[in-house]
Amino acid sequence: MAMSAPPPSSSSSAWLEWAAEYTKAAQAESRPPPEWAARVAAAAAAGEGGDVPWSAGLAEVLARALLSAGGGGGAPAAAAWKYAEAALAARLASPALLLALLSTRIMNLIDGNLSLSKMFGISTCEPGVFVVHFVLCILWQLIDVVLDDEGLLELTPEKKAQWPTRPGDVSTFDGTFTEQRTEKIEQLQKMNTVTTMELIEHLLRDKVITRILTLARENMQSHWGAFTNRLHLLATNSSTLQNSAISLEPFQQLILVDCNVYGETKHNVRKRFHPIVASNPLSSPNGRCLGASYSAVWIPIDMYLEDCLDGSIAATNSIEILSGLVKALQAVNRSTWHDAFLALWLASLRLVQREREPIEGPVPHLDTRLCMLLSITTLAIADIIDEADSLCNVTELNGHIKENKGIGKLRNELMLSLQILGDYESLLVPPPCVIPAANQAATKASMFISGISVNDGYMENVNGMNYSHKLDGSLAEVEKLFEVAVSGSDDDNVSAATVLCGATLLRGWNFQEHTVRLVVKLLSPSDPINYSGRESQLIKLGPMLNVILSGISAVDYAPIFSFHGLIPELAAALMAICEVFGCLSPSVSWTLRTGEEISAHTVFSNAFILLLRLWKFNHPPLEYCIMGDGAPVGSQLTPEYLLLLRNSQVLSSSSLAKQRNGQRQLQVPTSQPSSEHPIFMDSFPKLKLWYRQHQACLASTLSGLAHGTPVRNNVDSLLNLMFRKANKGGTSIGSLSGSSSISNSSGPGADDSHLWPQLPAWEILEAVPFVVDAALTACSHGRLFPRELATGLKDLADFLPASLATIVSYFSAEVTRGVWKPASMNGSDWPSPSANLSMVEEHIKKIVATTGVDVPRLVTGGSLSGTLPLPLAAFVSLTITYKLDKASERFLNLAGPALENLAASCPWPSMAIVAALWTQKVKRWSDFLVFSASRTVFHHNNDAVVQLLRSCFAATLGMSSTSVCSCGGVASLLGHGYCPGGFSPVAPGILYLRIFRCIKDCSILADDILSLLMLSVKDIAKTTVPRQRSDKLKKTKYGMRHGQVSLSAAMTQVKVAASLGATLVWLSGGTALVQSLIQEMLPSWFLSVQNLDQGGASRGMVYKLGGHALAYLAVYSGMLAWGIDPTPVSRRRKRVMRSHLQFLASALDGKISLGCDPSLWHAYVAGFLGLVVECTPCWVQEVDLKVLKRLSSGLRQWGEDELAVVLLRRAGPEAMGTAAELILGSEW
Question: What are phi and psi of 455, to 5 degrees?
Answer without folding.
Answer: -85, -15
